[in-house]
Specification:
Blueprint: E1 5-14, H1 18-30, E2 35-38, E3 42-44, E4 55-63, H2 68-81, E5 99-108, H3 126-136, E6 150-152, E7 155-157, E8 162-166, E9 173-175
Antiparallel strand pairs: 1-4, 1-5, 2-4, 2-8, 3-4, 6-7, 8-9
Length: 176
């Protein structure tokens, strides 16, 4: 039986040097959380903005009892550290190095019946949301070859859903 896991789903993306920035985002999140569960990483076209650069997107589950406001502070800090100007009034329609959006608080497997449309209107995230919820609940995940392989400090991820653990004593990370 799967034990209940309380946390948040994050939508994460970048369209400025995304092959560099997504691994950096993962590394910075691991400084705050001992494990992250990731959907596959997917290329998506820019939506709602005029850009010639596609995004790399991933949905991340963070298991935590932290408040949403505390998580928002961490997400905003990561965006700024990687070059996003949060004071720019046009920041929602500009290319960006880092975009971390808290999609929802969730409890898995209790929320297994929740539809992606009930979580966000960002429809390009729907397949990744479904995938990560199924992965967390121990349900089969449809194989998909569209995941993008990325690497950070010898850690490969992105082709399939995975959970990344941080060893707080040695800063080593591994995929299980």
């Amino acid at each position: 039986m799967i034990t209940s896991r309380l946390g948040y789903l994050l939508g994460v993306g970048s369209n400025i040097k995304p092959e560099e920035k997504i691994p950096q985002i993962i590394g910075l999140l691991l400084q705050h959380f001992s494990q992250l569960t990731l959907s596959r990483v997917v290329w998506t076209p820019p939506i709602g903005m005029n850009s010639q650069y596609d995004f790399l997107n991933v949905v991340i589950f963070i298991e935590t009892t932290m408040t949403i406001s505390a998580l928002k502070i961490i997400c905003n800090d990561i965006e700024v550290r990687l070059g996003r100007d949060r004071t720019d009034p046009e920041r929602k329609t500009k290319d960006r190095e880092a975009d971390l959006d808290i999609l929802c608080e969730t409890r898995i497997p209790e929320d297994i019946q929740r539809t992606p449309a009930s979580i966000t209107n960002e429809y390009f995230l729907y397949p990744m949301i479904t995938e990560i919820i199924h992965f967390l609940a121990g349900l089969p995940v449809e194989p998909n070859s569209s995941g993008v392989a990325l690497e950070t400090k010898g850690l490969a991820f992105g082709k399939t859903p995975a959970t990344i653990y941080r060893n707080a004593d040695s800063s080593n990370k591994s995929i299980i």
